[in-house]
Amino acid sequence: MRFLSVFSALACAAIQVAAKPVSSAPFFTTVSDTEHIIGNSIWNITIGFTYGTKLYYKNKDIVGDAVGHYVSYQGALANLNWTSAKIFSQTNEYLDVSFSAKEGDMHWVIYPNLAGAYQYFVNRALPVLGEFRTLFRLDNTTFLNGKTNVKDGALPTLAEIAASTKVQDETWQKADGTYITKYDWTDFIRENSYYGVYGPGYGSWYIYPGKDEYNGNDLKQELMVHRESSTGDVVQLNMLHGTHFMASSSDAFEVGKTWGPWLWYLNDGSSADAAKRAYEEECNFPYAWFKSDTNYQSRGSVSGTLKLSDGRPAAGAAVFLGDNHPNETALDMGRYNYYTTYADSKGAFSFSNVRSSAYALQAWANGGKIGDVTTVYLQNDVTVTKGKENRLGALTWKTQGRKQIWQIGSVDRKSVGFQYGGAAHQHALVAKCPANLTFTPGVSKDSDWCFGQSALGSWDVAFTLPASQLKSNASAVVSVSLAGYSSGVSDVILMNGVQVGNLTSASIPTDPCMYRSGTTAGEWHYFEFNVPASTIKEGKNTLSFQCTRSTLWHGFMWDSVLLEWA
User: What number of other Cβ atoms are within 10 A of residue 225's Cβ?
Assistant: First the structure.
């Protein structure tokens, strides 16, 4: 198949090509040093110094008055500027066009009969950063709705936003007391096979099989789509390296690190069609056609079986392959490639299509039958070799080995099971949680404990210890597992009125989960506090979490609280 490459300095010719391509083959047209047109007979886009505009699909410019396509880091503080463009490679099947900036190269891989294009980015000189993204800002009269794995519906209109009162970052309160916020369009990125925006007759979707290059673990969340509040543009985000719900993630990348390929896909607005296409892409991953200087095509597998030191299989455990000899949390990792899975009922797990490298294997409780385990399994130097399976065999995971007195919530790094825990993303939900609460183990249910604590007051755990359970001069341990924490809220922990610990901003890295509509997780934190034997007594006891400092919509997102004999 012949590919069209046209070099023209006439702007009028560019307009004609943008309106009506002259060939069914993928094409690359140079209008000037800073303006190029790419596409095929189905779609085409004009890419300037920074932005891709004039996106024609089905005889309509679906960017319209919006900003269009661009690549940026650190939010919108640094947009990449394309200083050159060229045909990077071409075959009988596709055309790969590269746009170069000082930071790196953005590639569009165009097939003749594909509505959309495969895209990937190759790092050259990105700085140390937290946020790095590609995105489309599209016409707001064409795209009216957003779709993620958990939310599907109309995006708020610019008129609705204008009629509401701004209360914080990209969040407004309507006259009826409800809220509009872009953060309601957040989801766990590894649970999305596709997402995007759509309207009558038009849909624009991102499909990213594999997700090797995304930072973080299975609880990595990101903003996916939203309404741009100042212009009304409909935003379709591709957060390649994001920090929206994390305490920190600042990474330096190797020259040549490549994100993608992912598929940007256009259709008639049908989510069923997008889902079908996503399934096909997953089946074709990793892409045999993709030739890269990285180890994209060099992949192996890892398998093993986790067993707890008390003899139980590590049923349902979250298992993670990440940085070897890690010096940061699994959620905060982002320099290399990352893989997540869950163990089966017998503790067996496997990873396929893992890039050749050395990794650390981690595992932690994901609720269920091991939801009382607070320790984390770690094994470094797990080597993956092309075409080989690294069979790790039976792995022993040492638990905390303590006898439990009581437990509230299951250890899974999530607030699921508590009141409002795991609800649909919504702003200010923590304000519905009480200032004062009494929980009685054995009588109360986990759902009686609210997912977040924010208001001044005391949350008390009232429990009774018969003489037969008391140990002579035996101390206990309070284990506090937080699914997330947004700073500005402090607790003092008391056993029968005696302070045994505290939770403060000084000791907990903050993440935005509570005030950015999070209801399930943010950054996980774990603490243990010694409870002296002198503070525990026969009969009635009270463990209190007294909130002594409060900030609106901030606070503790709970995972689990355990009291165990030391």
Answer: 28
| pLDDT band, residue 19 (cuts 50/70/90) | very low
CA distance 9 to 29: 10
Q: Which amino acid is it at 368?
A: G
Tokens of 241: 């390296």
Q: Are 462 and 484 in contact (CB under 8 A)?
A: no
Cα radius of gyration rounded to whole Å, the chain:
26
Which pLDDT belongs to residue 74?
Answer: 85
Percentage of residues in the chain having pLDDT higher than 70: 95
The Cα–Cα gap between 279 and 263 comes to 12
Alpha-carbon gap, residue 263 to 203, rounded angstroms: 13
The three-state DSSP-derived secondary structure of 228-271 is CCCCCCEEEEEEEECCCCCCCCCECCCCCCEEEEEEEEEECCCH
* Measured distance CA(81)–CA(104) in Å, rounded: 10
On whether the CB atoms of residues 55 and 64 are closer than 8 A, the answer is: no
CB 302 within 8 A of CB 384: yes
Measured at the CA of 441, the angle between CA 435 and CA 442, to 5 degrees, comes to 140
The alpha carbon torsion through 467, 469, 472, 477 (nearest 10 deg) reads -130
Mean residue pLDDT of the chain comes to 94
Grade residue 18 by pLDDT with cuts at 50, 70 and 90: very low
* Backbone angle region of 83, left / alpha / beta, with phi > 0 → left and psi within -120 to 50 → alpha: alpha
Tokens coding 240: 């390649």
Residue 324 has pLDDT above 90, yes or no: yes
Q: What is the pTM of this model?
A: 0.93
Please answer whether residues 451 and 518 qualify as being in contact, where contact means their C-beta atoms are separated by less than 8 angstroms: no
